[in-house]
Amino acid sequence: MSKMVGAGRSEPRSCVGTRPYMAPEVEEGHSYDFSSDVWCLGVLLFVLIVGKFPFDAAPRQQNEINLSMQRIRRSATAKGIMSGLLQWEPLHRPTLDALLCLEWRRGSESEPEAPEEASQPDADRGPKRQRIESSV
């Protein structure tokens, strides 16, 4: 994708992207910035954990977003992260730097470590596969 940018700063307004991942401000035709990418990350994380998109149609208010968060049953950490990413107001979404500082990213003593043999290739059959269970 390319876009003509005038001298100085640019304020994107064109509606580009895949609808289920679009932030509300993009859907409504308002200007957007990196916080729209944070929204998209929240949708992607939701899809990876729950197995479906968080919304059937574009959400119109924060309450609709909160209802979607109720689908996450078992992981309070995942629910908290996605609730932050999927904030209606762009200014309420965390920055990517803030996300990298969260406890889940740094690791904690309560997280189980992956067995070492899972990452070691088997000489006869290649890398071993592990079944990953969802915690949601």
Please outline what is shown here.
The protein has 136 residues and is mainly α.
SS field, number of helical segments: 7
Order of helices and strands: HHHHHHHEE
Read across the widest sheet, the strand sequence of neighbours is 1-2
Shape: globular
Instruction: Name the CATH homologous superfamily of the domain at 13-97.
Output: Transferase(Phosphotransferase) domain 1
CATH fold type of the domain at 13-97: Transferase(Phosphotransferase), domain 1
Distance between the termini: 36 Å
Beta percentage is under 5%
Low-confidence stretches: 1-10, 111-123
What do the pLDDT scores average to?
71
Structural Rg = 19 Å
Region (Disordered): 107-136
Pfam families: Pkinase
GO molecular function, one term: protein serine/threonine kinase activity
Organism: Spumella elongata
Present the secondary structure layout:
Elements: H1 24-27, H2 34-50, H3 62-69, H4 76-85, H5 96-100, H6 103-106, H7 116-119, E1 121-122, E2 126-127
Antiparallel strand pairs: 1-2
Helix pairs in contact: 2-4
Protein name: Protein kinase domain-containing protein
InterPro entries: Aur-like, Kinase-like_dom_sf, Prot_kinase_dom
Organism: Spumella elongata
